[in-house]
Amino acid sequence: MKIVSRPNDTLTYYSKLFDVPLILLEQANQGFDAEVLPRGQTVQIPGYALFFESSPRHTLKTIAIERNILIDQLLVTNQLVSPDELSHYDQIIIPEPVNDFIITDCDHYTSAKLERDIQKLMAVYPFMRSQSAGSTVMGKTIPELGIGTGETHVHLNGSFHANEWITTAVIMRFLNEYLLALTNQLPIRGMNLHAYFLQTHLSVVPMVNLDGVDLVIEGVEAAGAYQTEVLTLNNQSNDFANWKANITGVDLNNQYPACWDTEAKRKPDSPQPRDYPGSHPLTEPEALAMQALTAKRDFKRVTALHTQGKEIYWGFADLEPSDAKAIAREYCRVSGYRPVQNLDSYAGFKDWFIQEFRRPGYTVELGAGVNPLSFEQFESIYQEALGIMLANLYVS
């Protein structure tokens, strides 16, 4: 919610008035001094939404009593009306704390839903940062979201594979729950999220393969200028449920220079709905975007969500650091998943991260069944993944 500052108002005052941690206000209003706020400055208050109603009542105090809110909250949000003599024509602005999920429609989670939900979250939680990590083949922006002020930078991503779009829904539900807990100063599973916000900066790319996800969910029309090509690769079928690749038929999680030659020798040698690693490593803009993002940051750890199998892969060519195993055990403890150190599979994002930076990297296979997993599993998958995503904030 946005308000306009009055004389002598400060961020510290707003923190107390709206019961919002000062650090969240400072993050939402970077560049403002907490104790010096220019008059007439637009200020964002995290965790609140504004509602408008016509009021035949007589005073703001009457409304405050009826709505059980502080009169000072009404005064700061209704500076253009006379507080002691309201007109029937006045539009009264009611500030209300958001205490429930904003993201409620997680089924068939397309790139359009992702964009919509990011906008919703940013409106209520402006201390979350949103920027572009790059673009897809079709020119869609790959969003990166950031939460936290800590010096420990960790990364989480989903939907490298098109028919694993449920991973994006899981991530976005988690972000919503995390943000909700921060502004309402509530724990998740008994844990103080404010402490994690201060110690960890979480980077999130909720959907890497936007073009492919839309193709799986919406069909050939989502392919735009690539309709002929994807139909040819898919044997003229408009059922793209088995499509893992990006829109040009390249498997983005087989695109990294980490034993890529080994993988290429046993995988298809031309574009396919799945498994084709490309003609060379890092030919696709989505893979390049993730490489560039990771190279630019100082991630202590990366975690990539995939489906399915309820397993956590944590090693690569014995290059993983000594603490990788302990972190994998914690991921497994909080999820019930099985740890797997080595797998006869190469050229993945976490493989490259371990090889390049010698830091812990994880591929987490959510749920069980056949991709794309039935959305009926969403709640159980989310609860399993929630422990992992929280652990990603607190493990050292």
UniProtKB/TrEMBL annotation:
The keyword Lyase does not apply. The keyword Aminoacyl-tRNA synthetase does not apply. Residues 262-282 are annotated as: Disordered. Its EC number is 3.4.17.-. It comes from the Bacteria. The active site is at residue 365. Keywords: Carboxypeptidase, Hydrolase, Metalloprotease, Protease, Zinc. It holds the Pfam family Peptidase_M14. SUPFAM superfamilies: Zn-dependent exopeptidases (SSF53187). It is an enzyme of class 3 (hydrolase). PROSITE patterns: PEPTIDASE_M14. GO terms for molecular function: carboxypeptidase activity. Residues 107-393 form the Peptidase M14 domain. CDD domains: M14_Endopeptidase_I. Coiled coil: none annotated. InterPro entries: ENP1_M14_CPD, Peptidase_M14. Transmembrane segments: none annotated. Its cofactor is Zn(2+). Belongs to the peptidase M14 family. This is M14 family metallocarboxypeptidase. It comes from Lentibacillus kimchii.
